[in-house]
Amino acid sequence: xxxxxxxxxxxxxxxxxxxxxxxxxxxxxxxxxxxxxxxxxxxxxxxxxxxxxxxxxxxxxxxxxxxxxxxxxxxxxxxxxxxxxxxxxxxxxxxxxxxxxxxxxxxxxxxxxxxxxxxxxxxxxxxxxxxxxxxxxxxxxxxxxxxxxxxxxxxxxxxxxxxxxxxxxxxxxxxxxxxxxxxxxxxxxxxxxxxxxxxxxxxxxxxxxxxxxxxxxxxxxxxxxxxxxxxxxxxxxxxxxxxxxxxxxxxxxxxxxxxxxxxxxxxxxxxxxxxxxxxxxxxxxxxxxxxxxxxxxxxxxxxxxxxxxxxxxxxxxxxxxxxxxxxxxxxxxxxx
Amino acid sequence: xxxxxxxxxxxxxxxxxxxxxxxxxxxxxxxxxxxxxxxxxxxxxxxxxxxxxxxxxxxxxxxxxxxxxxxxxxxxxxxxxxxxxxxxxxxxxxxxxxxxxxxxxxxxxxxxxxxxxxxxxxxxxxxxxxxxxxxxxxxxxxxxxxxxxxxxxxxxxxxxxxxxxxxxxxxxxxxxxxxxxxxxxxxxxxxxxxxxxxxxxxxxxxxxxxxxxxxxxxxxxxxxxxxxxxxxxxxxxxxxxxxxxxxxxxxxxxxxxxxxxxxxxxxxxxxxxxxxxxxxxxxxxxxxxxxxxxxxxxxxxxxxxxxxxxxxxxxxxxxxxxxxxxxxxxxxxxxx
Lengths: 336, 336
Fold this sequence. Notes:
The structure is a homodimer. In chain A, 24% of the residues lie in helices and 23% in strands. By secondary structure, the first copy, chain A, is of the alpha+beta class. Chain A folds into 2 domains: 4-20 and 34-176, HIT-like (HIT family, subunit A); 198-334, HIT family, subunit A, CATH 3.30.428.10. In chain A, the strands form 2 sheets. Chain A has a 10-stranded antiparallel beta sheet, with helices on both faces. In chain A, strand 1 and strand 2 (14-17) form a beta hairpin. In chain A, helix 1 packs across helix 4. Chain A is globular. The first copy, chain A, starts with a strand and ends with a helix. Strand 2 (14-17) of chain A pairs parallel with strand 15 (319-321) of chain B.
């Protein structure tokens, strides 16, 4: 039984139901500090020597035994390629009473960021972080070539409060056969802004923040990190390419070092300020059927996990913040 | 300094920035089982005898010293009535560069559900649960009479993983001066369904589930509890009034016992099955300027907090579930 994706009739939101992921391992029983981690953990499927425990390898940087970054299929995938649905697979839409569902067709990969079990993006050589960005780019482009994949998301869950189930540093790539309403709405709002002003809304944000300087956390010649005006969590950071690019597929190989440098720098600021906080980051990119557009601008969103979403945020999707007005303040305390 | 609400230029989402809530108390340092709680806690601001520690009392059921349910203003409000913004308050929209913000005008109340510190909705007399529902109704109607309040949300955070900061059983009411895009989208989808089929989408769900029986968890003559087809978390439950009502203001006093009975029954099932899980519930109702409509149907959404939202769910607003296809199964394991 593969997974299945269902649509809520009233909200148009989608849910992925995955049988596989119920069985995935968790390598701790309680919160464990990364300081207590060993460089090598014999039982860890991502540590060197255990390469046979991971499914099909899709990419290996440096290659062979001395790999520095590996990409493999997720052993407990949320979605799977259409072959998993058998020969009869043709149309993946189903009707059940008044409801719709679609087969959970897609891709779910793991980017193993380092051979070292206790490694951390903040302490790697910058050339190693660049290799991780290269793996992101290569896998993203490869996956987006299959027309079945409509949305590709790359994300990282760092720490237990961020939803990590394995401590060994890794990120994930998921491709889905539909675009969720949440993303459609973002695209629609960006289109509406473009219709009104003739410009990409994110380009306008970058221009304004570059001039005002108040919320710029760090920048180099190709990328800029901003504490957003209406940040959704405390210490929320967004990294933009300075040049307009709608989709992560448009990043060029020579941009990767700049992205690595901005990412590592801002994570280091968070690390120092908040003592290695749990966080998620996500590459938020145009859906494949809208790549190359003028109105949307891909970005990397960093979300420290310092507080718990409660009933109000869930019921309204408004974000409640329990700290001082942060925009300018956070920009300042993270700057320099 | 009162709070302020900001709009994200690209997503149209709103964030409330609250200075006040940073100072609110937390009555534990670590996860504490409700089993270890005392019936009376001298330092708790919601326990009898400490009534002077809470701000203005808005409602007291039974009244005086022997109150059974009290509603008070939140001491650490996320939003505040317009008087808090001073005499100059007239237009609450502001422009800052390319951005918008609005003052955090609104109401934030606490419904203290019982004088007993260790009380729990699952073990109260049903007549007491009815009194809590009565407090919800009276406060909701009162607040919705002020045209400044555009959306009213009542919610409960049970347990630390659900975001509780005080153990004494309580729920909250928040009224905001705008309707978030998330709710506007729900209303729009309901309108679109009504345009297509001439019926309320939720009425159609209730009809279908009543006939198929597969996902009905419990019902009485006035209310029905369903395990939704595309549930957003494991053991997600939705309680609907069987008669079409668009807004919680439309509930009649004689409905309250029926609502109390369905709510207590399904919480009891969760309690038994999952050993007093943390959960949120939310009353999801039409915005005030759309009350009395034909296309939306208020409901109470119960969301157990068993898993952590990680990067993928955050990035896509898709819900990932790590358990067996639940709809039917959960309906069955919760039924009877």
